[in-house]
Amino acid sequence: MGKRRFACGVQPNRSVPAGRRRASASYKRAVRQLGKRVKELRTERGWTLEHAAEKSDMDLKHWQKIEAGTINTTMVTLVRMADGLGVDIGNLFASPTGSTKAPSRNDKLRGNRERC
Questions:
Q1: What is the chain's alpha carbon radius of gyration, rounded to the nearest angstrom?
Q2: Is the dihedral of CA 22, 27, 33, 34 positive or negative?
Q3: What is the DSSP string of 50-106?
Q4: Residue 14 lies in a domain
Q5: CA 21 to CA 28: how far, in whole Å?
Q6: Exposure of 38 by Cβ count < 10 A (0-12 exposed, 13-18 middle, 19+ buried)?
Q7: What percent of the chain is predicted at pLDDT more than 70?
Q8: What residue numbers bound the domain in which 54 lies?
Q9: Are residues 35 and 81 in contact, defined by beta-carbon separation less than 8 angstroms?
Q10: Domain for residue 13, yes or no?
Q11: How far is CA 35 from the centre of its chain?
């Protein structure tokens, strides 16, 4: 039996197990941004890490790792965090105040269309 191929004839990458592949730079940036936003929401309320973790029914270490942007998390955990902080889950993904974001390709394209 020969090597397995996808329908398009490309051979699957088996050198790295699926769960161990490297995260892209944009993924890492998004995880760090989520952590910054969570920390911002917590500090706006004057809460300690311990208080925030307790309000969200979470382990303190887990909360710390999310704020540090060092781990991936589940939707269930994000819902718990949002509930504990008393915000809508979408607020966890809003840009932190004072951050400057470079315009995305879509933003640039929209700008070009508006000029027409």
A1: 20
A2: negative
A3: HHHHHHTT--HHHHHHHHHT-S---HHHHHHHHHHHTS-GGGGGSPPTT---PPPHH
A4: no
A5: 13
A6: buried
A7: 64
A8: 48-95
A9: no
A10: no
A11: 7
**Residue 4 has what pLDDT?**
58
What CA–CA distance (Å, rounded) separates 98 from 100?
6
Token pair of 68 as six digits: 């540090």
d(CA 88, CA 82): 6
Say how many domains are in the chain. 1
Residue 69 scores a pLDDT above 70: yes
CA distances 2 to 5, 11, 69, 73, 83, Å, are 9, 11, 43, 39, 52
Does the residue 1 lie in any domain?
no
Kindly give, in sequence order, each residue whose CB lies less than 8 Å from that of residue 12, ignoring residues fewer than 6 positions away. Answer: 4, 5, 6
Most confident of the following: 64-68, 89-93, 107-111: 64-68
